[in-house]
Specification:
The protein has 345 residues and is an alpha+beta fold. It has helices spanning 8-24, 28-34, 39-48, 66-79, 81-88, 195-226, 238-266, 272-297, 308-322, 325-335; strands at 121-123, 126-135, 142-149, 152-159, 163-167, 178-192, 228-229, 232-233. The protein has three domains: 8-96, Butyryl-Coa Dehydrogenase, subunit A, domain 1 (Orthogonal Bundle); 116-192, Butyryl-CoA Dehydrogenase, subunit A, domain 2; 196-335, Butyryl-CoA Dehydrogenase, subunit A, domain 3, CATH 1.20.140.
Length: 345
């Protein structure tokens, strides 16, 4: 059994993040329409340290563990999904101490976020290759990528001159820069990228899906409690009530699985398989919640007067950026046999 207790500092940071998300919620539509987070909100996030949740204090961050930081991320995204994700996803590489500007991407063909088969190869002190689809910060001064080296996967640091970003259209998370990444230049080897680092990456990604799941569930609940049909609120019909209950169970179960994985990772246990399962469950629950929200709203779910259709698009784009569910399931199953799934770095 795992145990999770907040200390005073973690509780204060969580409340700070929740307050930031609530304040940002009013500008969600503006950010989505403009395709960028308002500059004032980005400055506020930087000043509050929200972009530095998992960096160590020596690196100028807050030094939170995966469990505490993940709760903060989920709280922010649940209040302001588009803005929270656009600000924080490009920084998710901070799980291994990388500075702002970490780039991890899908790489195409069902690859995971750090997949070396995207084409990033390390040869001596140079790295070269391409990533098809990445969550990119607005103007990175340096980038941290996972490359395949002769002795296994390595985390490497590259100067901005060695990385070329080409903006790539996608159907969701329009306020976040999405780019194809071409790498060719000098690379500084930062060390091996093994099971512990992979677990950290998975644990850093899952809370974004938890946030979307919570947002969609809460919106659908409120709509079902207000919308009337045949003289009664639609939440009173069994089909709607049972669907909301199913969504709530999926969202809660996914969060509990992630909490256990994050706690075990924080205790120094080998949490790679559990973290992979937790990310897969988070994606499934977020998609179920967003898709169900669209369905409960009926025809209103497909118009941009409501955020449901935008959240559904966002969840699908996030899945592409962070690796697909089938690949994660394959990775978790094959690791049980001490063998990594084909194509998983």
């Amino acid at each position: 059994m795992f145990r999770f207790d907040w200390d005073d500092d973690s509780r204060a940071v969580a409340e700070l993040g929740r307050d930031f998300g609530r304040g940002a919620a009013a500008q969600e539509r503006e950010a989505a329409d403009a395709g960028a987070v308002p500059a004032a909100l980005r400055r506020q996030a930087e000043e509050l340290g929200i972009l530095d949740l998992m960096r160590s204090e020596e690196q100028g961050g807050l030094g939170l563990g995966a469990l505490q930081a993940g709760h903060v991320v989920a709280a922010i995204v649940a209040e302001a999904p588009t803005i929270g994700t656009s600000l924080l996803l490009p920084e998710a590489g901070a799980a291994f101490g990388a500075p702002q500007g970490a780039l991890f991407a899908d790489g195409g063909a069902g690859a995971l976020g750090y997949r070396r088969a995207a084409g990033i190869l390390l040869d001596g002190d140079r790295a070269a290759g391409r990533i098809a689809f990445a969550a990119a910060p607005p103007a990175p001064s340096e980038s941290w990528l996972v490359a395949a080296g002769p002795g296994g996967d390595r985390l490497v640091k590259l100067a901005s001159a060695a990385v070329s970003l080409t903006d790539t259209p996608a159907m969701g998370v329009t306020a976040m820069r999405r780019a194809a990444v071409a790498v060719d230049g000098a690379a500084v080897d930062q060390g091996g990228f093994g099971a512990a680092e992979r677990a950290a990456l998975f644990l850093g990604y899952a809370p974004f899906f938890h946030g979307y799941g919570r947002a969609a569930l809460d919106y659908a609940r409120r709509y079902a409690a207000e919308r009337k049909a045949f003289g009664k609120v639609i939440g009173g019909f069994q089909a709607i009530g049972f669907l909301l209950a199913d969504v709530a169970m999926e969202v809660e179960a996914a969060e509990l699985l992630w909490q256990e994985a994050a706690w075990r990772y924080g205790q120094g246990e080998d949490a790679w398989r559990l973290a992979a399962d937790a990310l897969r469950a988070a994606k499934d629950a977020a998609y179920f919640a967003a898709n169900s929200c669209v369905g409960i709203l009926g025809g209103h779910g497909f118009v941009d007067d409501h955020p449901a259709e935008r959240w559904l698009r966002d969840v699908e784009t996030l899945s592409a950026l962070t690796g697909n569910r089938a690949a994660l399931g394959q990775a978790a199953a094959q690791t049980a046999q001490a063998e990594e799934a084909d194509g998983v770095a």
